[in-house]
Amino acid sequence: AEMRNARTRRTKTVCTYCAVGCSFEVWTRDRHILKIEPTHGPANGISTCIKGKFAWGHINSSDRLTSPLLRDGDTFREISWEEALDVIEAKFKQVKQDHGPDALAFIASSKCTNEESFLMQKLARAVIGTNNIDNCARYCQNPATMGLQRTVGYGGDSGSIADIERAGLVLIVGANPAENHPVLCTRIKRSHKHRGQRLIVADLRKHEMAERADIFFRPNPSTDAVWMNGVARYILDHKLHKPEFIDQWVNNFDEYARSLEPYTLEYTEQITGVPAATLITVANEIAAADGTCILFAMGVTQHCGGSDTATSLSNLLLLTGNYMRPGAGAYPLRGHNNVQGASDLGSMPNVFSGYQKVDDPDVRARFEADWGVTLPTTTGKDNHQMIDAILEGTLKVLYIKGEDTITSDSNANYVASALAKLEFFIVQDINFSETCRYADLVLPAAASLEKDGTFTSTERRIQRIYKALEPLGESKPDWEIIQLIANRMGGNWNYKHPSEIMAEVARLTPLFAGVSYERLEGFNSLQWPVHADGTDSPLLFVEKFPFPDGKARFYPVEYIPPSEETSAIFDLHLNNGRLLEHFEQGSMTFRTAGIKEITPNGFVEVSPELATERGITSGRYVQIASPHGKVRVQVLVSDRVQGKQLYMSLNSVEEPVNKLTSSYTDRYTHTPAFKETAVSMTVLPEQ
Ligand code: SF4
């Protein structure tokens, strides 16, 4: 027993399943995960959800990649790291020489650490010489960031998760936090039930928080910006806004007020389908509340008007004085564990770390001096543009780490046709994903429990993860792999530990100026901006907004109709989202036996009235088809959806919902309009 206890280790880490950022100790013996013990988490206290507590079986899955794999015809063969690096060096150099650095592109991962995101963009920019670098925030959060940067300057949660409990009113729009951000959501459930906090939910689907809400309403698909503008106009017309706050803190009021003129109650009801009486109640609730927090997610962002809806939401908060205080403000609920950090650290085509623009000569000069290179001057391609460039023949090489693009990006068949055309394609992951099938070279990465680093949660909280296990087989931490590749390409890097990477980040990034591993020791954490003296920012806007005059600004927006509307053939609207038990497309959770047993596959929710019309019951298989593809999926009849609206879980082992989604995007950020899909449903013969 003594020997057994001596082999038992307790290691602090942060959950890898969502951006709430729950931290805990993981108990391990050899490679066995004995238990997860949350004790001091700044975001979660002693709580976790089912994923954080139980979904770690993937660490020892037989699907783990344990050595580099090189394509050999239709199969792959194991090779050594030296051989893999030889292949990469030869291919990168040949394509760069023949076609220039912009013929190569890089996709970082929102699951990997901050340090790894920083190195991936440094590899692209400083070593290869291209700004073709992006991450999967492109698929979800960029419109939220755009809307907030336009109006209040920073794209991040206005306050801390704990502050949400202090709000008089929580308004949840296009988000399902009970399943996607469970531990954060527990705070709202508690405040609503025991402290009289008001709760309003706007969503197509009656999910758990909609069931609990004081007011739940269902706007027509893609019309959130309209009801927000309509509510804003009502507030203005009835002098329920906060003129003192606006005078002191917000520019551009007159133009904003003029832009709201078309949004009468009558027009708003006509477009959104929300009764005027409900709009008036919502306006009065916001105006009367002692602090309003608006929580939002993909139901807002994944539309062709996603950026404008996020902007409209922030305008409404400014109009009602709901910034610069705890228990008020915008909370874009980030999805992946480090989707905030991947963008913060510069894995984007237009900015270095801390959102410093690549086309700003002063910024570039600082990075050039520190890195000793000449950097590219123009914005690179984002994920969406990369796919088009591959098909056009101008992009030849793609290096993706920690992302299953073929199931995550919209219009999977179109994406597959592009990936098949690449001259050289590297996929780096912990498991052999669907995307690996298209790769020329597959690199085995270490899982989060097998490395050191930091993640940044939705509340801008930077936290340490510590290595609990040795990397499986020949797998390596992503930062080590990137460094090996950089050095083959002449990078001359010599990082011995991620703490040295973070020191470089702090040196070059005002937003992270005071971040260091000493200050992040154990359960300590910091919320950005972090000043050089180490003081951090639980509340994002205190003495000013980050614009030259310190003031926020109203940014008028208009209604943008959806990119794809229902028709005689494609007569149903398809919405999609995650399940509590699964993470994204399920690459990790479907490889965890207990989780898979509870929820073995995805499904499509069909309303009772549509099920009756089509003569189907739960369990029946149907074919869902769109102009872009088709899937076979099992039906769950549910009154969570209504009429001709379907809801499909995006977690699926066989048939990703993205075979159905289109290539239409948000017009400013190119985030796909995942939530604007028109489909048909055909009942399949009973088996
Ligand atoms: Fe992990 Fe999110 Fe669950 Fe917390 S709420 S345990 S971070 S999945």
TrEMBL record:
Its cofactor is [2Fe-2S] cluster; [4Fe-4S] cluster; Mo-bis(molybdopterin guanine dinucleotide). It comes from the Bacteria. Keywords: 2Fe-2S, 4Fe-4S, Electron transport, Iron, Iron-sulfur, Metal-binding, Molybdenum, Nitrate assimilation, Oxidoreductase, Periplasm, Repeat, Signal, Transport. GO terms for biological process: formate metabolic process; nitrate assimilation; respiratory electron transport chain. Residues 8-63 form the 4Fe-4S Mo/W bis-MGD-type domain. Catalytic subunit of the periplasmic nitrate reductase complex NapAB. Receives electrons from NapB and catalyzes the reduction of nitrate to nitrite. This is nitrate reductase (cytochrome). It comes from Granulicella arctica. The chain holds residues 276 to 962 of 1013 of the full protein.
